[in-house]
Amino acid sequence: MAQDSCTPTLDGLVGYDEAVQRLVTSAERLAGQREVGLRDALGEILAESVTSRIDVPGWDYSAMDGYAVRAAECADAPVTLPVSQRVPAGVVPSPLVEGTTARIFTGAPIPPGADSVVMQEACEAVEQGVTIGRSVETGENIRRRGEDIARGSAVITAGTRLQPQHIGLAAAVGIDRLSVVQRARVALFASGDELVTPGEPLPPGKIYNSNLFTATALLQALGCEVVDLGIVEDTLDATRAALADGAGRADLVLASGGVSVGEEDHVKPAVESLGALDMWRLAIRPGKPLAFGHIGGVPFIGSPGNPVSLFVTFLLFVRPFILRLQGRDDWRPVSWRVRADFDWPRPDRRREFHRARAYRTADGQILASVHPSRSSGVLSSVTWANGLVVMPESRKVAAGEEIDFLPFCELLT
After folding, report:
1. Which of 22, 45, 331, 365 would be 326's cystine partner, CB 3.0–4.6 Å?
2. What is the distance between the alpha carbons of residues 409 and 413, in angstroms, rounded to a whole number?
3. How confident is the model at residue 247 (pLDDT cuts 50, 70, 90)?
4. Residue 4 reports pLDDT greater than 90
5. Which option is the CATH number for 33-55+149-181: 3.90.105.10, 3.30.750.200, 3.40.50.300, 2.10.109.10?
6. What pLDDT sits at residue 234?
7. Coil, helix or strand for 269?
8. Rounded to two decimals, what is the model's pTM?
9. Domain 61-143: what homologous superfamily?
C-alpha cells in the first residue's frame, strides 16, 4: 500500500485504529513448525490443536473416601452391610457382591455393580461391617468417565501460547510432545551517534542505550529470537546497510530512532531505497513518528527514539504484529474500565496513551492516577506505572469519569 493512500485523520496522520488494523492485516503467519517435549514447551505457540486420545477420567471413580454401594440396597436405611473388598486409588476392583459394600477411597474406580458412594462421615463401622444411616441417591459422589474430557475432543487450540496449565492438560491426556510454531526472528538496531553501550564510560554529550535493551526484553517476553545489530551510526549508508543485513537474517526488522524528519534521521529514506514505506506518522501521543514498510518482502517497523515512545509503540503496534506472525488471534489489548482520580483539562488532538497506575480503593472501586510528566523521555515513568490510560482525541476528562485502562500485565505477554 503506498503512503499517499493513507486516510488522513489529523494533518495527514494515520489514526490508531487504522494503523493497528493495517499492521495485523499485513502480518503473515510464519511458515514451518517444530516439535518440543512438554518440559520445553512453556511459552511456545501451539501450531496444531491437541486432541485427546483418551477419556478423562478413564473410568467412573469415587469423589471422596467412603463406601461404594447399590443405592437400592440402602432404601430402608439404616442398613448394615458387610465390607467385601477394599478399593484404594490405582487398584482395579472386583464386581460388588450383592448385599455388601466396598471400602473405597478418593480417585478409586467404582466396582462394577455399585452405583453410589456414601461418604465415610455418614457411615458407622460396626462388627458386622458398616451401618449406613440414611437412604442413598443413585450416582451420589461418583465422577463419570469422560466427565472432564471426552476422547476425540480438542483440548488446546492452535495459536495458544502455552502456559503451565496447558502443559499439565496435555500431560493429562497422555501427550508428551507438541507441535509449535517457529519462533519469530527479529533483527533489532538502535540509531544514534549519542548512544553508548551500558558498562562503557559515558563521555560528555552521550547517553546510555536503553532502547536496545528494552526492545530486546519486550521481544523475548513474546518468545522471539533477537538478532542484535547493535548501535548504528547516524548516516544513510550505515542505516541502509543495517536494514539490508537485518532483512537477510530475520522475519521482521525493528529499528529504534531515526524515523523522524531531522537531518540525522535516515531510516525513512533508507527503507524507501531498499523497499517501500507503507505508513509513517500516526495521530497518537507518544509515538507519532512510527514507520511501517518492507525491505525485499521482509516487514519493517521503525519506532521513535525516545524511550517511552519506544515502549508504548511496541505494546500498541509491534506486539500485535508479532502475535499475528505467530498465529495468535488474541492480539487485541485487554482493557479495563476504571475511574480517573485526576482532571485532564488540556487534551491533545491526538489519541494519548498516558502512563498510569491503577489501584483499588477500600470500597472496591478501581481508580487510575497518571504520572505527572507527559515527556516521552522519562523512562522511570513506565516502571512507576502498571498500565496506560487511553485519553480520546480532544476530550477533557474530569475526576470520577470512567476511562479505558490498558494493564501492562496483559500487554507484556
Report:
1. 45
2. 7
3. very high
4. no
5. 3.90.105.10
6. 85
7. helix
8. 0.84
9. Molybdopterin biosynthesis moea protein, domain 3. (2.170.190.11)
